[in-house]
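Comment thread on ticket #2218

A.B. wrote:
> Attaching the input chain for the structure job we discussed in standup.
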Amino acid sequence: MKKIKYLTFICAFALASFASANETDPKKEIDPQERVEQLENRVHQIWEMDFSDMDKEEKAALKVEVKEIKKELKQAGLDSRVSISIGAIIIILLLLILLT
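C.D. wrote:
> Ran it. Output below, let me know if you need it in another format.
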């Protein structure tokens, strides 16, 4: 009987430790659109700052921060650039030639 209680006790702690490991990261729960808005707001705040009062280190830190924000947006595929492939351009040109 003592072995059963002992095993039950160990199993309860083991399950509790696995349950806590399954928790999600609160950073990942943020909607991508909300994250983009946060980053854009931060960039606008940086642009509106008065750089004449800052020293070189502060300016460099802000420049690094803006670069990191751009890098994060690019990795997420949320940058503002629109690209078109060469194949798409050829197809559009062929359609324009055929339709005229």
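A.B. wrote:
> Thanks. Noting for the ticket: Residues 29-99 form one domain.
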